[in-house]
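**User:** Here is a favour to ask of a fellow structure person. Please take any protein you like and set down a full record of it. No explanation is needed for now; the record alone will do.

**Assistant:**
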Amino acid sequence: MIGTGSAFPRHSYNSCYAIKNNGGLMLVDAGGGNGIFNAINDSGIKFADIHHIFITHTHTDHILGAVWLIRGIINMSKDGENCGSLHVYGNSSVCNALRVICQLTFLASDYALFTKNVELVEIAEESSLTINDTLIECFDVYSKNVAQTGFRMTFDCGEKLACLGDESLTEDNLKKIKGCDTLICGAFCRYEDKEIYKPYEKHHHTVRDVAILAEKAKVKNLVLVHSEDDNLENRQELYRAEASKYYSGNVFIPVDGGRLVF
């Protein structure tokens, strides 16, 4: 877990994480700025090992860190370092946004290196791809806010992991994660704090909301991210206590730089 915070974190980095499997690594989202470099270092990940980035949607707290990572790849290339190619996966909005941002903000020579060293892979709805020999099935999470792409991964052992970006588990996308063992999704705050953080106004939901549906879906492991970070010292205990009232599986409330093994 590189970051676990929401769009405007004060004590953490924006939600993004790396999934390691079959000796390879895929970064999921990249946060909102050049803080991604320190966050990656703190997570024990080597920048040179990042060759695959899955961007769920175009919000600044998920896509702008990718622009900085692309700049990092370009700088390594200019310095003569063999960093390999970078593959960025996203829906059409994500790919178009990255092209425009890079073209508007990079030197012409750097943009030329971007087109040479970075492959933008546009993901269509209900499509699949293979990264590091792992099958990834992509789908629309039915966000009410912005086009957002989630995915299911099937590992060699048969375990399935689903990601909903920063979206919460809802009745609309519930069928997309059925049969998965692990779910990573957003939970903005506890239900009892909803009047403070107003998650519904931001198209997000509470721990209670997600836990009720995760129980219905029979998910074994529930990983909650993209949360308010005003009370990091007690967040794990408080969120887990609320979730356990409605959900019987394993609840993970990760911290920045933490590692989860399933």
The first helix runs from residue 35 to 42.
